[in-house]
Design a protein that fits this description.
The protein has 353 residues and is an alpha/beta fold. The chain is 38% helix and 14% strand. A six-stranded parallel β-sheet has the order 5-4-1-8-9-10, sandwiched between helices. The N terminus is likely disordered.
Length: 353
């Protein structure tokens, strides 16, 4: 007889998947009602959903030709635009801009110096839309200004405090509400089948680690991001601390993503999900390994429920989360899945009816 115990906090989909795995390992069959559970209820039926389910089944079926041992079941996910909303500007930039506004009270010169003036001027919606048109170098200047001398604990607390009340000015929802429900289901499905899920993001590593476990079920040690430089020292009471410095060790974007994966994870993923040109090398690296692999890009083509931007497939160009036609064509040529937000997702956010 199989004995299975569940944590009260385990989500229903995850419980069903764990039950299925336990029974199958014991050589028992699932009851008819359990077999009917859809692990991806927010996805429309189609090639993309089928591809995800077939990949998970193939890589986790003992004795099958594509079976992958649990130790090698690694899946990586970009964050901005892949797991949650990135428009009109990256959430981390919005957070840093809010800190710049507070700093400008003591340093009025920031109100006239770009890109800090853009971070301060206008109402919230206009300001964030203007921020979204800045360059990556400008984003970095804004973020770096707000880091110096904070301990890693102070920074984490500042992020969590801001996140508790901050809202997306266009969608008028808390940032914490704007996780894509279909992608959350993919994370749960993979973990219920023995995968380790990692965030691999161009965003600040310390920033994402402040909330990754609460929002995605991904612990801080499984976040690979752009790491801020830190300095060891002592506080006024003599307690050892790490303080952030206005510099980064490397940028975890483009070719930096496979490099970050190697440095932190030490193994090539067998599945990778992204949404922009900054994710291309991560998907290429993932697919270049031996055995069955899965790669996917989220295409933001739903301006009614979220945002529409590309410029792939004639969508509007965006500096934030750029998805070019060249990347789209490469995805099709290489057999990567292109997830159409409009066609593949039955619902985008958990709060939708």
């Amino acid at each position: 007889m199989v004995s299975l115990r569940f944590s009260a906090g385990l989500r229903p989909l995850a419980r069903a998947a764990v039950l299925a795995a336990g029974l199958l390992c014991a050589g028992l069959s699932l009851p008819a009602h359990a077999q009917a559970v859809d692990p991806l209820p927010s996805w429309n039926a189609g090639a993309t959903k089928t591809g995800i389910l077939d990949f998970v089944k193939a890589t986790t079926t003992p004795g099958g030709p594509d079976f992958v041992p649990p130790a090698d079941r690694i899946a990586t996910f970009d964050q901005d635009g892949t797991l949650w909303v990135e428009q009109p500007v990256y959430t981390e930039v919005a957070f840093a801009a809010a800190r710049v506004r507070a700093m400008a009270q003591a340093n009025p010169a920031l109100k006239t110096e770009e890109p800090f003036r853009t971070a301060i001027s206008g109402d919230e919606k206009a300001r964030e839309e203007a921020l979204g048109k800045l360059s990556s170098a400008d984003f970095m200047k804004i973020i770096m200004l707000t880091l110096e001398s904070l301990t890693v604990e102070e920074f984490r607390a500042a992020v969590q405090d801001w996140m508790a009340t901050a809202r997306n000015p266009v969608l008028n929802r808390p940032h914490t509400d704007l996780v894509y429900q279909p992608m959350r289901e993919v994370l749960e499905l993979l973990r219920a089948n023995g995968f380790r899920t990692y965030i691999v993001t161009g965003g600040g590593q310390d920033f994402v680690r402040a909330y990754s476990e609460k929002l995605y079920g991904i612990p801080p040690e499984q976040v690979v991001g752009t790491p801020d430089s830190v300095r060891f020292g002592y506080d006024a009471s003599g307690r050892p601390v790490l303080r952030l410095e206005p510099a980064v060790l490397f940028e975890d974007v483009f070719g930096g993503k496979p490099e970050g994966i190697h440095l932190v994870i030490g193994k090539r993923p067998i599945a990778a999900f992204g949404n922009s040109t900054g994710d291309r090398q991560m998907l290429e690296y993932t697919k270049a390994g031996k055995g069955l692999r899965f790669a996917a890009l989220v295409l933001h083509d739903d301006g009614k429920r979220e945002f529409a931007y590309g410029p792939a497939q004639g969508l509007p160009y965006s500096e934030v989360g750029t998805f070019t036609q060249k990347l789209y064509d490469e995805a099709k040529a290489r057999g990567w899945s292109v997830i159409s937000m409009k066609d593949d997702w039955k619902k985008v956010f958990a709060f939708e009816p």
